[in-house]
Design goal:
Blueprint (H helix, E strand, L loop, with lengths): L28 H10 L8 E5 L1 E7 L11 E4 L6 E3 H11 L2 E5 L4 E6 L2 E5 L2 H13 L4 E5 L5 H5 L2
Parallel strand pairs: 1-8
Antiparallel strand pairs: 2-3, 2-4, 2-7, 5-6, 6-7
Length: 154
């Protein structure tokens, strides 16, 4: 499970909930996976689980919007969670600004005081490449029906 590193339990600042890397903490997929590998678990016994949902926060100041920026609570929807299909709709409906944060291999979008951290096709592809480079057995997505394309054609 390579996600839920940040969320509604910490409403004081935004966070990359599915960070591949985190230069400031152990809350990242690389730390998690390398811990298993260094403990002797073979890569062909590990599968990387990736999320198809984002975590939301309400920004304290709409002019400050980076990862780790001050927040005053969770954003809209179900306890600060948006399915990826809802993230796509949020971005369209609000003409949200989308920013890639390379330090964590994540993406976030924001509009006014709403901030959403999530993975998109590019960051997901990068994480899949990472899983392959580590020689993991594979990867899967939680959950497929959260994806944008699955809702468009439903």
């Amino acid at each position: 499970m390579c996600y839920d590193y940040h969320g509604s339990w910490d409403t004081s600042k935004t966070g990359a909930h599915a960070a591949l890397f985190d230069p400031n903490t152990n809350l990242s997929s690389i730390y998690e996976l390398k811990s298993w590998l260094s403990a002797g678990v073979s890569g062909n016994k590990l599968v990387m689980d990736l999320p198809l949902y984002g975590k939301t926060w309400k920004l304290k100041d709409p002019n400050e919007h980076g990862v780790g920026t001050a927040a005053i609570g969770v954003g809209p929807r179900n306890a600060g969670v948006l399915l990826y299909s809802q993230v796509v709709e949020f971005n369209k409906r609000n003409n949200a600004s989308v920013t890639y944060f390379l330090d964590t291999t994540s993406v976030y979008s924001y509009s006014e005081t709403t901030w959403v951290g999530y993975d998109d096709p590019l960051t997901t592809t990068m994480k899949i490449g990472f899983a392959q480079a580590l020689g993991l057995r594979g990867y899967f997505l939680w959950a497929l029906n959260y994806d944008y394309e699955s809702t468009v054609n439903a």
